[in-house]
Structure formats: C-alpha cells, structure tokens
C-alpha cells in the first residue's frame, strides 16, 4: 500500500513568523497518521518550520535546490545546507521554475540525483502546457519528463522519489483537471516507470496530482487508484484548508 502524500507548496508566500502561526494551527489539528503531510516553504521560513514541526510527523520541504554541494553559485542553496537545516523534502522542476528560471530536464535530473544522494526526498513535477494538451501531446511530454528526471537512478532511489503530475494549465487557475483525466495520465506515468525500471518499482512509486486542488475537489482525486495524494499551491496557504486536505486523503 502506498502512503498518500499531501504537500503544500507555499511558493513565494509567508515570512518565518507567519510560518510559525501556521504551524501552531497544524499542531492543534487531528491529522491522520496514515497520510504524509508536508509543507514546502520559502528557504527563510524553513528553520522556523523545522523547529515547530519536528516530532509532529509533518514534514518540511524546500521548493528548489542546486545540484552542486557548494561553490560559486550566487543566490543558490545546496542539498547539504537543507539537510543541515533539518529539511526532508524538496520540490524539483516545478513548472514555474521551468518557465521562469530556465529549469530543464537536464537540471531536473541533476537536482533529483543530488537530492537523493544527500538524503532528501524529491517531489518531481511533470506536466503538459495547454498547447501541448490541445495538440494531443500530453503523454509524450510527460513520458519525456519522467524518463529524463529519473535517468540513472537505482530502483531504490526511484521508489523514494515522489512524482507530481501537474498540468501547467491547471496550476493556480482554478481549473482543475477532471479526476478521470488526471487518473489516466498518472496511470500512464506508472506504466512509464514500469517500462524504465520494473513493475515492482512502479507499484511503489507515489504519484500525486497537482493543479487547483482544494477541499471541495480533493475526494475525486484521492479515489483514483493511481493518484497517491496532491501537491497543493493556493489552498495550502490557509491552515484550515490544508488540514482539511490532509484529513480528506486518508
Ligand atoms: C502548485 O503550485 O504546485 C499548484 C498546484 O498550485 P495550485 O494548487 O494553486 O493550482
């Protein structure tokens, strides 16, 4: 059985102080142990979140990382730095980073390898643009991204990796995919992993859906056999709604 993961992606929202208030609300909530809950926050809020959430079972993640361990990379943060801060997860290849910060399949692969080598759990984002969907290229695009991101990983590394299927047109737009379409693509991603690794790895890898998930629609996604949770942007900014999402995923 795969454990569902609900990961909040705060993007460029919340100060350390705001993160502490959010964590205080989470700690009051009755969160189900059978769901992995993770908050992916801006770098500056991570130490405060780690301090607040250690021992609660709620994980803390970053939203990006550099693939080198250290060096002349002004403005970047490395895997050892995140590990030293007590971070456990990192989002890699979010479509906003691919679109605005020149993230490529190649850098995504380097970052995934660096994260796994350094003991972080990568949440790797893949997904088609609206134009690609309209041109019937969804599966081709997603297969290419999944294969590139996981190139050179061992089976054990792949099993630890979380894939987030996020159709770009559904992110932050309020227009979620239908659960059936998301299931079709997530099932295709699992098949891609089976072709690249083997069926056992594919059975174990967790695949989230992301794109305008909120408390009102999460049930339809969670019910799908190949969807193991959600990566959530907007609806993760409010503690009450994040708590509802985690509770709905059990
Ligand atoms: C995201 O940022 O990964 C995301 C899915 O955003 P939203 O939930 O706001 O669509």
Describe, in plain words, how this protein is organized in 3D.
By secondary structure, this protein is α/β, with parallel strands linked by helices. It has one domain (5-249): TIM Barrel. Helix content is 43%, strand content 15%. The chain has an 8-stranded parallel β-barrel with strand order 1-2-3-4-5-6-7-8, surrounded by 5 helices. Helix 2 (46-53) links the parallel strand 2 and strand 3 (59-62). The longest helix has 18 residues, at 179-196. It is globular and about 45 Å long. Phosphoenolpyruvate (PEP) binds at residues 9, 11, 166, 171-172, 210-213, 231-235. Its main location: cytoplasm. This is Triosephosphate isomerase. Substrate binds at residues 9-11, 172, 212, 233-234. Pathway: Carbohydrate biosynthesis; gluconeogenesis; Carbohydrate degradation; glycolysis; D-glyceraldehyde 3-phosphate from glycerone phosphate: step 1/1. Homodimer.
Attribute tags:
250 residues, glycolysis, Triosephosphate_isomerase, alpha/beta, binds phosphoenolpyruvate, triose-phosphate isomerase activity, single chain, 8 strands, eight-stranded parallel β-barrel
Q: How many β-strands, per DSSP?
A: 8
Q: Name the CATH architecture.
A: Alpha-Beta Barrel
Assign the CATH superfamily: Aldolase class I
Main beta sheet strand tally, sense and closure: 8 strands, parallel, barrel
Strand order of the largest sheet: 1-2-3-4-5-6-7-8
- By helix and strand content, what is the structural category? alpha/beta
CATH fold description: TIM Barrel
What share of the residues does DSSP label as strand, in percent? Answer: 5-15%
How many discrete structural domains?
1
Broad CATH class? Alpha Beta
Helix share, percent: 40-55%
User: Whole-number average pLDDT?
Assistant: 98
How are helices and strands ordered from N to C?
EHEHEHEHHEHHHEHHEHEH
Main location: cytoplasm
Subunit structure: Homodimer.
Keywords: Cytoplasm, Gluconeogenesis, Glycolysis, Isomerase
Active site: 94, 166
């Amino acid at each position: 059985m795969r454990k569902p993961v609900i990961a909040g992606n705060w993007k460029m929202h919340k100060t350390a102080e705001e993160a502490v208030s959010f964590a205080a609300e989470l700690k009051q909530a009755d969160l189900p142990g059978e769901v992995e809950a993770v908050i992916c926050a801006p770098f500056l809020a991570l130490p405060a979140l780690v301090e607040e959430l250690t021992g609660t079972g709620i994980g803390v993640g970053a939203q990006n990382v550099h693939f080198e361990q250290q060096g002349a990379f002004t403005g970047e943060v490395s895997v050892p730095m995140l590990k030293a801060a007590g971070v456990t997860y990192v989002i890699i290849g979010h479509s906003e980073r691919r679109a605005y910060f020149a993230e490529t399949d190649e850098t995504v692969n380097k970052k995934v390898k660096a994260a796994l080598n350094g003991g972080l759990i990568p949440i790797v984002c893949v997904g088609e643009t609206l134009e690609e969907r309209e041109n019937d290229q969804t599966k081709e695009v997603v297969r290419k991204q999944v294969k590139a991101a996981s190139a050179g990983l061992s089976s054990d590394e792949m099993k630890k990796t979380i894939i987030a299927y996020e159709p770009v047109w559904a992110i932050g737009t309020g227009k979620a995919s239908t659960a059936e379409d998301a299931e079709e693509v997530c099932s295709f991603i699992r098949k891609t992993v089976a072709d690249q690794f083997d069926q056992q790895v594919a059975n174990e890898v967790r695949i989230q859906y992301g794109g305008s998930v909120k408390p009102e629609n999460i049930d339809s996604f969670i019910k799908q056999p190949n969807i193991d949770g959600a990566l959530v942007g907007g609806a993760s900014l409010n503690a009450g709604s994040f708590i509802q999402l985690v509770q709905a995923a059990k």
